[in-house]
Amino acid sequence: MTNVGVVGAGVMGTGVAQDLAQKGHTVVLVDNNPDALDAALGRIELECRMSRMLGGPEVDAAAVLASITVGTSLELLAETEVVIENITENWDLKSALYAQLDLVCKADTVFVANTSAIPITKIAALTSRPDKVMGVHFMNPVPMKPACEFIPGYHTSEQTKETVRALLESMGKKPIPVNDASGFVSNRVLMLTVNEAAFLVHEGVADAKTVDEVFRSCFGHPMGPLETADLIGVDTILYSVEVLYEQFNDSKYRPCPLLKKMTDAGLHGRKSGQGFYSYQSMG
Amino acid sequence: MSNDACTQIRTFITTKFPDVTFSDEEDIFALGFVNSLFAMELVMFIEKAFGTRIPNEELHLGNFRSVSLMADLVARQTSAAVG
Description:
The complex is a heterodimer of chains A (283) and B (83).
Chain A: E1 3-7, H1 11-22, E2 26-30, H2 34-50, H3 61-66, E3 68-71, E4 82-85, H4 91-104, E5 110-113, H5 120-124, E6 133-137, E7 147-152, H6 158-170, E8 174-177, H7 186-202, H8 208-218, H9 225-232, H10 234-248, H11 257-264
Parallel strand pairs in A: 1-2, 1-4, 2-3, 4-5, 5-6, 7-8
Antiparallel strand pairs in A: 6-7
Chain B: H1 2-16, H2 36-49, H3 67-82
Helix pairs in contact in B: 1-2, 1-3
Protein name (chain B): Phosphopantetheine attachment site
Pfam families (chain B): PP-binding
Domain Carrier (chain B): 1-78
């Protein structure tokens, strides 16, 4: 059992906290927004109740919730062995957070960045412990996904890799090693696909439902790219495409204006009740 | 109650999938237009619309396969609450 800190109670942080607690770890979930923490606990309870129905194991929601401590102060992470960071894909926010984590956590605490596109080596440089910083790209919904990208930074030590690998394996996840580059493998391809799908809607070539229908019916994908965008979060898609654009300085990563407008309008997908599709019952 | 529940559940589904036709007895999962994520929406809708909390032993796909099976589930929960 590992004492794990999880920072950020959004879609990914909530899923990571739930999965860790289900696998017997103790979790400290920290977010600067108390409403996000309340929503996370509600979401975790529902997901645990629904686990068997969605093809997973039977999960004792009360036991899972009892393993999770929540709070708004980073000081709560002082005794954790591993901290998994899942905050918004924004460099300024990440810079401020890692500097604070470096101060409040023990010297040997390992930091795991669950980022969508920011290079791990760049994040590690924000801390005094670049050998103890590692990237893991979890997939959503976290408790149901059997694999993740496993991304060491330039300075990541073998010991750190082993610590993180063991934690992932305890969660039933297969770590797939890839080298450090913005977007890694998955998001380098996926974010551009979603961005281009948004351009198709933006230009009136097809509506969202038709775009997804092509991917479902012609390619046999279980979900189309715009359903996937709603699941990930339209805002997260935009921020990830912006990071790719910034990192590669290549115009092929130019973000679709529709993603910007939807993000500004609060149409963030499933989590907000409206994205490319409506999810009003989720509110 | 059951007919009313059927109507409300059917309205919820057809609002999301206006192009699909199906009877109250048909297996909506077998028809292929809904997925497991929609199953979660169905649970949230039923709990909110009918003011009930579905017990864990009732949370299985068998209870959500058709409009009439969901209405039966609602009827069981509301009669349990009254009784």
